User: Fold this.
Amino acid sequence: MTDGVSIPIFIAMLVVFGIITVVLGVYGYRNTQDNKSFLLGRNKTSPMIIGLSYGATFLSASAVIGFGGQSATHGLTLMWLCFLNLFVGLLVAFVFFGPRTRRIGRRLKASTFADLLGKMYNSKGIRGFTAILIIVMMPIYCAAVLKGGVNSVAVITGLTEYYDLILVVMALVVGVYVVFGGIIAVMYNDALQAAIMFIGMVVILVVTFSELGGVTPAFESLSTLGEMGGTAAGVLDGFTGWTTVAEFGTNEWMLVVTTFLMGVGLGVLTQPQLIVRFMSAKDDRMLNKSLIIGSIFMLVIVGTAYTCGALSNVYFFENNGMTAFQYVGQHLGLGTDFIVPQYILELFNGMFGGDFFVCLFLLSLVCASISTISALMHTIGAAGGYDLYTLAKNRGKKFIEDSQDMRVNRMVTAIMMVLVVVYCYIMPSDIIAKATSLFMGMTAAALLPAFCHGLYAKGKVDKRAALCSITVGTVSYLFWALFVNASSSVFLPICQWLTGQKVLLTGPITFCDALIVALPLSILTMAVVWAIGKYCLKEKNETVA
Amino acid sequence: MSFFGLTDPYIVASYIGCFLSVIICCAIGFKLKPLTDDEEGEEND
Assistant:
């Protein structure tokens, strides 16, 4: 897989990138004077930085190589995820969640998502649970992103024997600038990385359509690929083609729609690392302005990854006589996560300036990974070093005094970075898309109803309803993910250990994502307990009167 | 009916939905309304 990769060009790009990263890290370090600026910045972040940082944190290597590979396998149905990313992840998030989150966060003097939820409900339990959820589940997502980035770089450059070194260096670079530069270094580096990703993806989109004869001929070829002899591989029953949606209710439909589309599409609303971006905005106008750059960035990155991922089938079929998964997954013995990198490598091979563009794509992948990992590490560090430390310090006290100790944040971030590297060695391969969906689904099922209630409740919030909803959402999600869903049970095969079977049920239901069951249950619990609480209060008031 | 070579209405709708979302986001971003009293107050905090 080394053809087309110029190691000297890539190293030169990395050096320049590394120098700018260090400069931005130092800038962040100099401007991080206290714990508040470590957690939220200086409250004057520009709309462009917020938009790019939000987009880069949201998308990562998971969108480009993880879901790009899934699009190559399962087809253009994944474009619905692009729509959900834009509509739910950006429009709904910025219009309905962002301004209220920012205002309530400022009023309550909250610095993290766990802190915000805890203060909304005046509950140490909710704050502690959210922080624990972050510190336990987020490293899995973080490790999947890190592993995906390192795998791609090591395999594409042919430097697989240096896998360990690349992993440690990447983790070290991120660790150092997050630990010392805090959120300021994270957001400015995100913006730099987003700009590199943007240029890389625009080039890939233009070259793909020009190589396949234009937009219409490219899609027509993909539509007729089955008739031309292209065989679908790596798909489930119900797959009908790369330009059509799978048959409703089949295994394929369940996997694509419930896991990839709904799990990630809805889960974004409760992503702690994204919610902090709202809290760092100066005013609502900044949030609205950042929608412009954020939406264009997201459309280009995600739209290109999913469109080119699916179109890679045409390219591979014309050049190698096999469809994407057949060629990369079965013939080359690489996984779904390598379809997009392999496609880029072959697309630019022999082309004028091809070496440069392949290196640019590689750098984009590094950027995509680093931007997400840095934001996740900052969030994990804050959950442990700020939220849990604050709760531990104030144990037994009625009023909580938030920790102002930046050193604890930095220490926890560094320790968790080491843990994430360890996770990379014990996690199964090809899990970027599934790990992303698992984390996002879990946070949405557990926290979305409570978060919405906290933001939109008129009058006093119902703490009991929130606690019940969080409990039901978490328990039902974990049960379904570990005992019913065939994809997510691989993460922790408890069902296999206890019953000897991979999952408890059979049929298409085993491909239904846990979020589809857990989120409605969580919402229902919140509504029922809230209604009972209101009814009891009314009865009590009438009795007193 | 074909939309740039795509015929499945669900796939076509996903592309149209993406472009519409970006247009709405840009429209909201460019619509610069004056600061309300509350917001001005917040900024002076």
